[in-house]
Amino acid sequence: MIAMRFLLLIPAAALLTACQTAPRTPKWDVPLTLQTAGPAYAEYVIERADGNKDGTVSVVEWVNAGGTKRSFAVVDENKDGTLTRTELVRIGSNARFFDLTRQYADFNKDNKLTPREFRSPGGFQVMRIEF
Does residue 96 lie in a domain region? Predict the structure, then answer.
């Protein structure tokens, strides 16, 4: 009986060992560059602020998510009262905005900004940045 249990444990142990791989870095832990920050920022804002899930962010949604009307006006380039993914990508790809975002949202202070840090307590400030 003991030998049978031992034999059952060997395949289970082999299976567990085979399933264990080196920890993978999730996409939200990869440091952003100026080229990748815009899409990551747009994804974050739409995920956080788009309450009615229509793919755009209104002033009310922006303010409810923690932004200010003044920062909304900076991002809303065509002044139509809604933010599209294109506008968010464009502002997130701005070098000055990227540097300011890194100052506010670089939670671990390693001078690298990751999508996870947008979601950190410091990242909450990102929707308030006015430059």
Answer: yes
